[in-house]
């Protein structure tokens, strides 16, 4: 029996004008290392065709300025296979370096989503920012959270969701055994 037949994976992603908060995340909840380091994101395998699904269904990307500044070439996700409009939300667009295909926005996150959805032309907007994603989630503007949990413990960095003192946000699982079912993950530490 393969993973695809056991219900481990959700249905393939579709282009439906959704706002997706999308990340590969360490098992301990980090989406980037300290200083937005991404060098840990190697040596993992993904389900065949997964990258192609996102390349085909993504119409625009909404990112944050600090991640853009830390990795200015990262604005072409999926190894450069995806080409489209990138919007970087910042309070200081005047000092942003001009970059082909990147528009710097200084507006409310909800307005940034509207702009990105218009540019996506019916395909999905992927949110590549933990802080913007949190703000959009609190405003009810995230349609789905897509996570790929990598078998690594980072110990520090930038968490997917950090909201001390905030109220819990309940989620419904897409696919699987039911909307409130937990996801079972099992790993063994590799010998050093």
Notes on the protein architecture:
Helices cover 18% and strands 21% of the residues. It has 192 residues and is α/β, with parallel strands linked by helices. The chain has a 6-stranded parallel sheet. The longest helix is centred in the middle third of the chain and has 12 residues. It is globular and about 50 Å long.
Question: What does the secondary structure layout of this molecule look like, with pairings?
Answer:
Blueprint: E1 19-26, E2 30-32, H1 50-57, E3 58-64, H2 65-70, E4 85-89, E5 102-105, H3 109-120, E6 124-128, H4 130-138, E7 144-150, E8 158-159
Parallel strand pairs: 1-6, 1-7, 3-4, 3-6, 4-5
Antiparallel strand pairs: 2-8
What labels would you give this structure?
192 residues; alpha/beta; 6-stranded parallel beta sheet; two-stranded antiparallel ribbon; 4 helices; 18% helix; 21% strand; disordered N terminus
Tell me the Rg in angstroms. Answer: 17 Å
Distance between the termini: 31 Å
Secondary structure category: alpha/beta
Beta-strand share of residues: 15-25%
Number of strands: 8
What is the ordering of alpha helices and beta strands? EEHEHEEHEHEE
The general outline is: globular
Share of helix, binned: 10-25%
User: With helices defined by DSSP (H or I, 4 residues minimum), what is the helix count?
Assistant: 4
Strand order of the largest sheet: 5-4-3-6-1-7
Largest sheet: 6 strands, parallel
Instruction: Identify low-pLDDT runs.
Output: 1-7
Q: Give average pLDDT, whole number.
A: 87
């Amino acid at each position: 029996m393969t993973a695809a037949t056991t219900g481990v994976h959700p249905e393939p992603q579709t282009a439906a004008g959704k706002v997706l908060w999308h990340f590969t995340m360490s098992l301990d909840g980090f989406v980037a290392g300290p200083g937005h380091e991404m060098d840990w994101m190697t040596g993992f395998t993904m389900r065949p065709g997964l990258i192609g699904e996102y390349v085909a269904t993504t119409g625009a990307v909404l990112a944050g300025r600090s991640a853009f500044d830390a990795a200015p070439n990262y604005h072409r996700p999926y190894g450069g296979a995806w080409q489209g409009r990138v919007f970087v939300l910042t309070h200081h667009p005047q000092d942003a370096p001009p970059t082909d295909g990147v528009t710097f926005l200084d507006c409310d996150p909800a307005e940034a989503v509207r702009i990105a959805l218009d540019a996506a032309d019916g395909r999905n907007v992927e949110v590549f920012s933990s802080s913007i994603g949190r703000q959009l989630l609190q405003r009810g503007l995230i349609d789905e959270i897509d996570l790929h949990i990598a078998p690594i413990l980072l110990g520090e960095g930038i968490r997917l969701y950090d909201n001390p003192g905030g109220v819990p946000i309940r989620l419904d699982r897409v696919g699987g055994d039911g909307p409130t079912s937990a996801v079972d993950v099992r790993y063994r530490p590799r010998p050093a």
